[in-house]
Design a protein that fits this description.
The protein has 298 residues and is an alpha/beta fold. The protein has a single domain, classed as Divalent-metal-dependent TIM barrel enzymes (TIM Barrel). Helix content is 45%, strand content 14%. Helix 10 links the parallel strand 9 and strand 10. Helix 5 packs parallel to helix 7. The two termini are 18 Å apart.
Length: 298
Amino acid sequence: MKLRYLGYACINMSLEKTTNKTFRLSNLTEEKYLDTVRYNLKSLEDIIRWNAEHGIYFFRIGSELIPFASHADFLYDWTTDFKKEFAALHKLGKKHKMRFSMHPGQYSVLNSPDEKVVVNAIRDIEYHTEVLDLISPETGRIVIHAGGVYGDKKAAMKRFIKNFSKLSKKAQGMLILENDDRSYNIADVLEICTRLKIPAVFDILHHDCNPAEGDLKELLKMVVETWGEDIPKFHISSRKGEKGCPHTDYIEPEYFIRFKKIIDNLHFDKEYDIMIEAKMKDKAVLKIINNAMKVVNG
């Protein structure tokens, strides 16, 4: 396999801009809504341009691009109010062949036994779908985790599969499932993805924290197969300390090179992308490009 893109999430440290500017729901006014969304969309435009100038073509858009848009009390028609801005972002992303993803927060739990939580999760996933359908309808993807175990993992997995069917077809087509650091390892995720015929995202740090049985190369092979003709994406971050799975500021070059070699040696004639999950965001990607990639490429 061959590495295509490296990416990062939500914030550009070099520009000091974020796609996640927000406010308190109690402070929601039309003026606050319009000003904040304008800022986030303009930041996204600036980040896309900066990324293209620096050879970075993979970016995770912040979930708060339209703050509280999935909340029941949000009444503004953001798709109409910012129709021109979204059209421009779509055109810009397409021009630079950018890949975009989004990652709903920890409270979007599709397999919760609480029906209210599920309703809110569906509303939130549909909001993310609307955003990506405007910016990147061809390749946009929504990454989520399987959710909680609730004392019975098999029952929780069945509930995820059941509730997945409640999503719109468009949302189902964008959804991809990632292994997490505590509850659902990559084998669990592959079981769900196989049933639903959706792609699996392999996170190497989460695998280190919550490993699945079996040979890593075989697990990765199964992950790639879930993507079909599409380009797989992987997540990488370095572990800070010995407790939990907190991310470091940067990725250790040796750690990146080792992971990349494993993927490169999978026997698939296709490309793949890697999302760098590090606190220094774009600066962490540039460090990999300027250090690790130079070592790899000789």
